[in-house]
Structures are given as C-alpha cells and as structure tokens.
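REQUEST FORM: STRUCTURE PREDICTION
Request ID: SP-0412
Submitted by: Lab K.M.
Chain count: 1
Length (residues): 208
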Amino acid sequence: MMRINLLPHREQKRQARQRQFVSLAVALAILGVAIVALVHVILAARIDNQVSRNTLLKTKIAELDKQIKEIDKLRDQIQQVLARKQVVETLQANRNEAVHLLDQLVRQLPEGVYLQSVKQTDKKVQIVGFAQSNARVSTLMRNIEGSPWLEKPALVEIKLVSVPAQGRTPAQQLNQFTLNFEIRRATPEAVAGAPGSTRTAQAKGGRP
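STATUS: Completed
RESULT:
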C-alpha cells in the first residue's frame, strides 16, 4: 500500500495563511494610518478655516469698534450743537423778558396798589409796594397766577404802615407788602403764540 506524506502540503498552507494574515494586517495598518492622516488633514483644514474666520471677525469687530467710537464722537458733537442751539433759542425767546415783566406788572396791577421797588434775580422777581387793603394784594396775586408770563406768587410780608403826607395830602395808613413771583420762561413756541397769549391775558381781566 502506497503512503503519501502530507506534511509539506500542510506546511505550505500554514505559511500561505500566515502570509495572508501579514498582508491583511499590513493593509489594515496602512488603511488605519490613511484614515488617521485623512482625519488629521480634515481637522487641520477646519481649524485653519476657523482661525481665518476668527481673524476676520476680530478685524471686523475692531473696525466696528472704531466706527462706534466715531459715532459716539458725532453723537456728542450733535448733543453739544443741540445744547448750544437750545441756549440760543432760549436767549432769543427771552430777549424781551424785561419788557414782558414790566408790561405784565402794568397789566396785572389792580387799582389801589402802588409799587415801590422791583428786583429781578434770574427768573425770580421781588416787588415791594403799598396797597389800600389786603384784598388788593390778594387780587394782585390772582392776576399774577393768571398771567401768561408770570407764575408762583408768594406773599413774604404784609404790614400796616403810615405813609408821610405829601403836599396837601394827609398821612395815610397803607399796607406795605413784599411779594415774590417767577417769570415763566418763554419757549420759541410760546414766542410764536405771544399775540394770542396777550389776548388771553386781556380776556382774563388784566388791565390794558
């Protein structure tokens, strides 16, 4: 009976399987390295892209900050110009303040009241005068409240005094009073409507 030795054949198969395993392992290793390299390249590209975007954003933010500072400077300049304009308009509107004050004193002064002095400090005015009775002073205060140019009347003092005789006029007992009030600051709109305001004052009973 013939005998066949299979050991060389089995050894060849085993070596072939080993070569296949090594080849597969090398291929898998190469594939793994390729995948890692590809992921690294993709991540590096994304990082570079994000860095470029961040740099662009920083540049744009710096430009916007500069523009905002310029806008703030312009806003401050505009506010200064508006403030100066408001001052000029206020001065323009109140340039005839003394005229209005004297005009209103004449208009609102009731019969039986005489002024001794008028003192103005800014928009506050103090008058000292004589009245034939307390009711005359009350009428003067009501007239001031109803005036388009005067406001906030406040009686400081009132007292009975003897006024020396003048010529043939005998001495009189009169009420000397001190009264404070304020001038209502005019606005450009009020100045534009000043004729109407004067007519309103006349309609309220001011003396012409």
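NOTES: The chain has a mean pLDDT of 80.
Reviewed by: T.R.
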